[in-house]
Design brief:
- By secondary structure, the chain is an alpha/beta fold.
- It has a single domain (about 5-205), classed as Spore Coat Polysaccharide Biosynthesis Protein SpsA, Chain A, CATH 3.90.550.
- It is about 30% helix and about 20% strand.
- It is built from 6 helices and 9 strands; from the N terminus they run E-E-E-H-E-E-H-E-H-E-E-H-H-E-H.
- The protein has a 7-stranded mixed beta sheet with strand order 5-4-1-6-8-7-9, sandwiched between helices. A two-stranded antiparallel sheet has the order 2-3.
- Helix 2 (about 75-90) runs antiparallel to helix 4 (about 150-155).
- The radius of gyration is 16 Å and the shape is globular.
Length: about 210
């Protein structure tokens, strides 16, 4: 049985290629991507939180806690992951791990958390991340809360921003998914991506 895991939806990006706004609020298949992510992750996680900067009221309808980056100047996904680890430490002290997912992925797999835990256990590494086809997805990953002090130092002392540089220091397992017929980690970065995702949702209702 998978240990209780906090789900962290990363919604703090600037969405420049979408013309600004919040990518998670883009509609795909009649729902926002955020609604789709919550529906997929809720059965897999003990609790869910959203990482987002700016006014948290725009996500109030979800009823989920919204945690902002503690590292200033939009330091990227690692800052959002640190915010989730810090929230887990303060508010869910029995939770040893956080699973992060981007807020712009409308087709997240229903077995994400169990597969990441299994990959990590098999490899004997502290972390695990997802791969579909030939693409690794470093923000779709399992993170131990115990590494939060190390991550904070990397961000604030070293100025590190690249996820894969930091995870390589500790060891990260890979959990594989097929990328056909629908890539479970298809991400919506542009209006064209949103239209493509909408078509995929219509063609593959269970995706």
């Amino acid at each position: 049985m998978t240990a209780p895991t906090l789900g962290l939806i990363l919604a703090g990006g600037l969405a420049r290629r979408m013309g600004g706004g919040d990518k998670p609020l883009t509609r795909v298949g009649g729902q926002t991507i955020l609604e789709r992510a919550i529906a997929r992750m809720t059965p897999q996680c003990a609790r869910l939180v959203i990482n987002a900067n700016g006014d948290p009221a725009r996500f109030a309808a979800t009823g989920l806690p919204v945690v902002a980056d503690s590292v200033p100047d939009f330091a990227g996904p690692l800052a959002g992951i640190l915010a989730g680890l810090d929230w887990a430490s303060a508010n869910a002290p029995g939770t040893a791990d956080v699973v992060s997912v981007p807020g712009d992925c409308p087709f997240l797999p229903r077995d994400l958390v169990t597969r990441l835990h299994a990959a990590r256990a098999a490899a004997g590494t502290p972390m695990a991340c997802a791969r579909s086809g030939d693409w690794r997805h470093p923000t779709v990953a399992l993170w131990p809360v115990a590494l939060r002090a190390d991550l904070r130092a990397a961000l604030t002392v070293e100025g590190l921003r690249k996820i894969e540089i930091w995870t390589a220091r500790h060891g990260v397992a890979i959990a594989d998914w097929p990328d056909r017929p629908v890539d479970p980690f298809f991400n919506v970065n542009t209006p064209e991506d949103a239209a493509a995702a909408d078509r995929l949702a219509a063609q593959h209702p269970g995706a």
